[in-house]
């Protein structure tokens, strides 16, 4: 089973790298970048609704939810404040990492890896379908990350390198989910999942959609958000 988890966790890793390389080699224009960011936001929001919320509600541990959710929110606000001060001070955007976006995606990927590692313990079919669903998510996140880094003026090699690090983080968290964290207590896991829930909501509302709305909104941009949500929702129902 452990070898199977390793093999299937490579699928989302490959799709994320592919999405990042495609968006780095052919830098999308403003409208296409906005479409990608809307789509990625829809997928991430669907992950929250389909994967995280049901597990969190099922355990009925409000104290742990409050602790984890608050910790995630405070961390993301502090990161946003620090990076926001850099913008106000007139830092060169081409040399500044969008840390709020980067950290939010890192948390998303880490939680996804844990879910995949733990998901295989529920059965091989469930684990394989989850790997396919997460591949769709990481493909869109890889493209969105590369598009946003490109808009910041970051060099292609550095962009691909950062996406490779994020993809490696997914692989590591999948291994952790299959081994160490599989034996984590329900209360501790509730805190971890609630932390991820808060961070992902922040990522969607304050990073992905905020950046996406820098372009003039059209019905196609809005539709791409709902398309991303629908695709992962359907994949979650299949699982």
Name the helicity range.
Answer: over 70%
Structure class: mainly alpha
Number of strands: 0
* Residue runs with pLDDT of under 50 for 5 or more positions: 85-95
Q: Please provide the ordered H/E string of secondary-structure elements.
A: HHHHHHHH
Shape: globular
What can be said about the biggest beta sheet? Answer: none
Q: Give the averaged pLDDT, no decimals.
A: 82
Gyration radius, to the nearest Å?
17 Å
User: DSSP strand (E) fraction?
Assistant: under 5%
Contiguous helical run count: 8
In whole angstroms, the N-to-C terminal distance is: 18 Å
How many structural domains are formed by the residues?
Answer: 1
Description:
The protein is mainly α and 239 residues long. Helix content is 84%, strand content 0%. The protein has eight helices and no strands. It has helices spanning 2-25, 30-59, 62-88, 99-119, 124-151, 156-178, 186-212, 219-238. Helix 1 (2-25) runs parallel beside helix 5 (124-151). The protein starts with a helix and ends with a helix. Residues 85-95 have low confidence and may be disordered.
What's the short version?
This protein has one domain.
